[in-house]
Design goal:
This is Prolamin-like domain-containing protein. The chain crosses the membrane at residues 6-23. This protein has a domain at 36-111. It is 65% helix and 0% strand. It has 6 helices and no strands. Residues 3-9 and 11-21 have low confidence and may be disordered. With 118 residues, the chain is mainly alpha-helical.
Length: 118
């Protein structure tokens, strides 16, 4: 009987521990390999960043690369950039809105379903 209680206790601890591990936040940038340098050229990174954080437009070629990268990566990279002290003074809601506009423009140009604006 004592061994049954021991195994039951171990079972409960395993379940609780696995729940704690599952509760950790997964970094979408790492999980989706967003920083793979083969996914986007430096030129397009600069062009898209300028369009989101300053002003400018995104060419069709860079839109294609952005859509290939994916919206999860696009949103995650923009949100991480907003944590950078260089961008701390920017209005987060404006930047997220501009990022959504860039994504929607590129998605529509590449026949991908656009996301709703934030």
């Amino acid at each position: 009987m004592a061994s049954l209680n021991f195994y039951a206790t171990i079972g409960v601890l395993v379940i609780v521990a696995s729940g704690a591990v599952m509760g950790r936040e997964i970094d979408p940038i790492k999980a989706n390999n967003c920083e793979d340098k083969s996914k986007m050229t430096w030129h397009c990174i600069v062009e898209i960043s300028t369009s989101v954080f300053k002003t400018g437009s995104v060419t069709d070629g860079c839109c294609h690369q952005l859509v290939s990268l994916g919206n999860i990566c696009h949103e995650a990279l923009v949100k991480r950039s907003l944590k950078n002290p260089l961008y701390k003074k920017n209005d987060t809601s404006v930047i997220l809105s501009k990022a959504a506009q860039v994504w929607n423009k590129c998605a529509s140009a590449n026949d991908v379903s656009p996301n709703p604006s934030p």
